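Project outcomes to date are best conveyed with an example. Our students and postdoctoral researchers have been running inverse folding experiments weekly, and each run begins with a structure described purely in tokens. The record below, which covers 399 residues, was selected by the lab manager from last quarter's runs and is presented without edits.
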């Protein structure tokens, strides 16, 4: 008979692919009439490697092929439960968060285990999708959705700011048209850290960009963005890349519309998940002057849809669709008296997510950015939601 923990590892492999890690990863084995135990692991590979020895027998003396036992895998806050509830061969699989409850009955316990493996190689794919959706819905550590450092939130943030943040903060009123028409390459770095219950969610993003200005109308801009991110929670790492293309279309002197389309990709052996992402959004920016200061109100609506990602023999399909609504207001304050060519931008951004349920459905950001000379900006903001809080630091240079 295969050990009960190896059955649990089969679930891990079916869900994650080889070698995964979680910020909260544990296994509990309860054996009727015998000792029970719980162990936690930072890395699923370490958990699976532990199965090479007599993992259960070393911890539960007297464990044998007829033992009634239950194994519970703590999978980033979602429980996956496998149990031999009698001395017979029936093997029960439950995931309470998704409603899955199925029993496999073979001629022997080995045969029941084979039926379990067959299940995840065929009709079980839909159940894996439900589990991935539950992780985004219930936890704030999912790399695809459900927190401000996830792939979808990163794409939303970049699409909105591509149209909302001025590329020429507080330029001189009579700037030469030759300079207005210049094209820009932008590079920078953004570090964000979120915290909930003592678990840090850290992300570093390198935002690359290129802006081409129309020679006939410098306010009409064609923008290509390529943010590359690395997200880490408790030694588990995920990578995001989400290129996008946007066109800023001036409607009149005050109003600019910016449609954007994009693609995203996230993969992580550590988190045991991955996805492709297609995106589309429309941002409106309304600029006006009041009390001698320049102000901007912006709003965005978008559509962000995850797609199946195949890695080797495994296919992962989170099937998460998000419709974000973003509103922002900013004020630019010239600080020429202190530093030539400088200005300060104060802003607030309100983000709401609709569509599939996610852990963080609403958040607010309060921030300031200092342009110390033309093209170089440093900034910091505070992000608040009822589920998670954090700060973001960044700088950007255009040339």
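After processing, the design step wrote out the following sequence:
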């Amino acid at each position: 008979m295969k050990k009960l923990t190896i059955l649990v590892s089969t679930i891990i492999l079916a869900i994650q692919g080889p070698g995964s890690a979680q910020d909260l990863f544990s296994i509990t084995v309860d054996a009727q009439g015998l000792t029970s135990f719980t162990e936690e692991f930072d890395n699923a590979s370490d958990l699976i490697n532990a199965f090479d020895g007599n993992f259960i027998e070393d911890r539960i003396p007297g464990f044998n092929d007829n033992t009634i036992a239950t194994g519970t895998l703590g999978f980033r806050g979602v429980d996956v439960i496998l149990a031999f509830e009698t001395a017979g061969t029936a093997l029960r699989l439950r995931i309470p968060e998704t409603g899955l409850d199925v029993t496999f009955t073979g001629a022997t316990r080995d045969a029941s285990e084979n039926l379990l493996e067959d299940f995840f190689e065929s009709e079980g794919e839909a159940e894996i999708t439900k589990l991935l959706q539950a992780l985004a819905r219930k936890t704030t550590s999912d790399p695809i959705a459900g927190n401000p450092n996830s792939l979808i939130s990163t794409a939303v943030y970049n699409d909105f700011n591509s149209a909302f943040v001025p590329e020429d903060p507080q330029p001189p009123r009579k700037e030469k048209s030759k300079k207005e028409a210049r094209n820009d390459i932008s590079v920078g770095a953004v570090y964000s850290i979120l915290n909930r219950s003592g678990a840090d969610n850290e992300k570093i993003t390198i935002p690359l960009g290129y802006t081409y200005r129309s020679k006939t109308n410098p306010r009409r801009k064609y923008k290509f963005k390529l943010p590359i991110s690395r997200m880490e929670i408790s030694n588990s790492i995920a990578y995001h890349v989400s290129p996008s293309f946007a066109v800023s279309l001036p409607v009149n002197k005050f109003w600019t519309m910016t449609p954007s389309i994009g693609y995203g990709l996230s993969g992580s052996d550590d988190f045991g998940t991955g996805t492709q992402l297609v995106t589309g959004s429309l941002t409106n920016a309304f600029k006006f002057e009041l009390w001698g200061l320049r102000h901007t109100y912006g709003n965005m609506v978008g559509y962000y849809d995850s797609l199946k990602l195949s890695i080797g023999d495994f296919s992962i399909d989170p099937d998460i669709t998000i419709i974000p609504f973003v509103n922002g207001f900013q004020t630019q304050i010239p600080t020429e008296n202190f530093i030539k060519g400088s200005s300060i931008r104060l802003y607030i951004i309100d983000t709401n997510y609709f569509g599939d349920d996610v852990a963080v459905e609403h958040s607010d950001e309060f921030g300031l950015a200092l342009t110390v000379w033309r093209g170089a900006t440093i900034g910091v903001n505070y992000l608040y939601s009822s589920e998670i809080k954090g700060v973001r630091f960044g700088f950007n240079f255009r040339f």
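The radius of gyration is 25 Å. The longest strand covers residues 273-290. The training component of this project remains on track.
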